[in-house]
Amino acid sequence: MRNVRCGSCRALLFRARQNAIAGDIEIKCRRCGTLNHLRPYEPFSDRPERPKRTNACGSSFP
Ligand SMILES: [Zn+2]
Questions:
Q1: Ligand 1 center to residue 22 CA distance, Å?
Q2: Domain tally for the chain?
Q3: Ligand 1: centre distance to CA 49 (Å)
Q4: DSSP state of 52
Q5: Does residue 16 lie in a domain region?
């Protein structure tokens, strides 16, 4: 089970199994009123996606 928390105030919204969610979810936080939009497979993270940048040549030599 994983705890799903509000992205704004970190209040516990609900708990769910890993595969319990099949589609998008919108849930309003009872504490602060923020509408949290959750998606399966990139679940419950409040961090924006940041693709890693790699050098085109792949070399780590300075
Ligand atoms: Zn909240």
A1: 23
A2: 1
A3: 21
A4: P
A5: yes
Cα of 28 to ligand 1 centre, how many Å?
8
CA distance 31 to 17: 23
* Measured CA distances, 38 to 2, 53, 57 (Å): 13, 26, 37
- For ligand 1, the distance from its centroid to the CA atom of residue 4, given in whole angstroms, is 11
| Domain-embedded: residue 60 | no
Would you place residue 48 in the very low, low, confident or very high pLDDT band (cuts 50, 70, 90)?
A: low
Distance 37 CA to ligand 1 centre (A): 12
Expressed as residue numbers, the domain containing 20 is 2-38
Structural domain includes residue 33: yes
**pLDDT value, residue 41:** 58
Residue 6 lies in a domain: yes
Query: 0.85 cut: is pTM over it?
Result: no
Determine the residue type at 41: Y
Tell me how far the alpha carbon of residue 33 lies from the centroid of ligand 1, in angstroms.
6
